[in-house]
Amino acid sequence: MTHLVVKDLTAGYGDARVLHGVGLTVGEGEICAILGPNGAGKTTLLRALSGMIRARGTVTLGGADLTGHPPDTLARQGVAHVPEGRGTFMPLTVEENLRLGAYVRRRGPELEADLDRIHGYFPVLKTRLKQAAGSLSGGEQQMLAIGRALMSRPRLLLLDEPSLGLAPLVTRELFRIVQAINAEERTTVVVVEQNAHLALGIAQQAHVLETGRIVLSGTAEEIRADEQVAQSYLGYRV
Amino acid sequence: MSNPTETDAAQERTAAPPTPPRPAEWWRSARRQWAAAAVLAAAACYAPFQLVPFHVFQLTMVLVYAVALLGLNLLVGHAGQISLGHGAFFAVGAYTAAILFDRWALPYPLTLPVAAGAAFLLGLAFGVPAMRLRGLYLALVTLAIAIFLVPLLKRFEELTGGSMGLTLAKPAPPAWSGLAEDQWLYFLTLVVAVAAFLLCVGLLRSRVGRALHAIRDNEGAAEVMGVRLSVHKTLAFAWSAMFAGTAGCLYTWVIGFVSPDSFTVNLSITLLAGLVVGGLGSLSGPVLGGLFVMFVPGIAQDINDAAPGVIFGLLIIAVMYVAPTGLAGLAGRLLRKIPRKE
Ligand SMILES: Nc1ncnc2c1ncn2[C@@H]1O[C@H](COP(=O)(O)OP(=O)(O)OP(=O)(O)O)[C@@H](O)[C@H]1O
Ligand SMILES: [Mg+2]
């Protein structure tokens, strides 16, 4: 069953158009990987999906129209965006960061339960609750960013290069957790990633974006088997 | 004074290895905070009976400025915006109280909510440009408000008394209190200042405070987390103006006289300087900044009558050199040097 439907999406900055009619669908509870070279518009695509920049076209999530709404409205509709560079609130503590994640849900007894849930996925955060988020390591900050996004109980989780700047071992661990989150909470995930191996390892389907257009779509296996992709993103010939 | 050095502490934490919080430690620090608050409250109630009236007046004015800085701190220290025109909101509060008093003979306690409300609404109006502008652009627009105000006050002479200003009777101490006028004014101001302080702390601990901090620290991330930037940026301005207007009303009560020349651009700039010197984003910063705004211009005048501005500027530079996170940060560092009993 399709959950996220994107049709003919165009977006850009000022006069410069970056996305030229992007279309894709993601099934409910699936992970979708977006691959592509630097400057292809991957980050721009996620920004358009979370409303950070204005976009034209249609975006629906579970049948509800999301097109053209401001980001805070989309956050209330269940879209959580872990932005490029993680968007950590540096001077605030880890706990304050996490509580901000639940900002759209107002308060409630579930909030504490959610904190426990996040600590389950990322035990290291529990030992750092009162520490300034800016003092976390890069990997910990990425975990915090994902944990914070989960605090809003999203229906759609957008991850922008979670592996950026992390050691391979940490990256693998992070992807394992993303997979676990997806499996346990049935959250639909769109992940932009340079590390195509890892992304294709957890995704059901993938799209290759080049200069603002999707040039290749398929299941993770199909994309992995593609000669062009293998050369450009996996670093070997099939 | 629950956390006098938030920013300073954050830096400290950046350097220090992670220490999981220990409940015993928290309890001890909470107890110390209550003890400090109790000592402070006792001193604040005792002081006016020990000081000569002029010093009581000075202390009262420190509190008046502290209330204004509480508001400015909300905007600059917590919401990450800037205002070079807060003297204007202060003036609006002062004039609103004075005019109500002068024209309609409103009992003075009633002038306070009206003055605060008027400043709030004006802040809301000026918060709209703040939604779109930032940094130097916002600084310029707010500076324009301050520049604009003095001629405006002089222009509407029938209402404002023009350049002559308005002279008013100060609130008289009721007979039951047995207080002298200066003491009565001091306690009035103290009550309002404490209420303003508690309101501010409450605001910062609420969802609003969390939203403001998020906007200050990372606007884009705050936005995707569902924080309505436009609403909170505008409201931060309005809240902030409300505190400044409240302080302005207290000013009218205490001084009993308002004139356009009391509220020039200089006031706005001194307020901002006072806040930065006191300690941006900290709870004790506004009080330390109030001391600065009250006393340092006078000290500068004493040192060199010919060029008080130069001395004033040099004093700011000297303080910022010694205490880059403001006096609150410096105080926090010194306090931490005192060995603690285990
Ligand atoms: N804030 C911005 N203002 C103007 N142009 C921008 C902005 N952000 C990105 N661009 C432009 O949009 C294009 C796509 O950028 P985008 O960040 O979406 O690429 P990307 O696929 O995420 O690349 P990378 O893999 O390097 O992160 C680039 O040409 C870039 O110059
Ligand atoms: Mg990118």
UniProtKB/TrEMBL annotation, chain A:
The keyword Iron-sulfur belongs to this UniProt entry's keyword annotation: no
In the record, biological process GO terms are: L-amino acid transport
Entry's Gene3D superfamilies?
A: P-loop containing nucleotide triphosphate hydrolases
Classification via SMART domains: AAA
According to the entry, every stretch annotated as the ABC transporter domain falls at 4-236
* Annotated Pfam families: ABC_tran
The record's annotation in PANTHER family points to: HIGH-AFFINITY BRANCHED-CHAIN AMINO ACID TRANSPORT ATP-BINDING PROTEIN LIVF
> Its family?
Belongs to the ABC transporter superfamily.
**The protein, known as:** ABC transporter ATP-binding protein
Organism whose genome encodes this protein: Nonomuraea longispora
Record lineage? Bacteria, Bacillati, Actinomycetota, Actinomycetes, Streptosporangiales
From TrEMBL, chain B:
Q: Which InterPro entries match?
A: ABC_transp_permease (IPR001851), LivM-like (IPR043428), MFS_trans_sf (IPR036259)
Kindly indicate whether the keyword Cell membrane belongs to this entry. yes
Which segments cross the bilayer? 34-51, 57-76, 83-101, 107-128, 135-153, 184-204, 235-257, 263-280, 310-331
- What residue spans carry the region label Disordered? 1-23
The record's keywords, sorted A to Z, are: Cell membrane, Membrane, Transmembrane, Transmembrane helix
GO molecular function terms attached to this record: branched-chain amino acid transmembrane transporter activity
Can you supply one Gene Ontology CC term for this chain's record?
plasma membrane
Primary location:
membrane
Where, subcellularly, is it found? Cell membrane
What membrane topology term does the record carry?
Multi-pass membrane protein
Specify the domain of life of the species encoding this protein.
Answer: Bacteria
Record-given protein name:
Branched-chain amino acid ABC transporter permease
Q: From which organism does this entry originate? A: Nonomuraea longispora
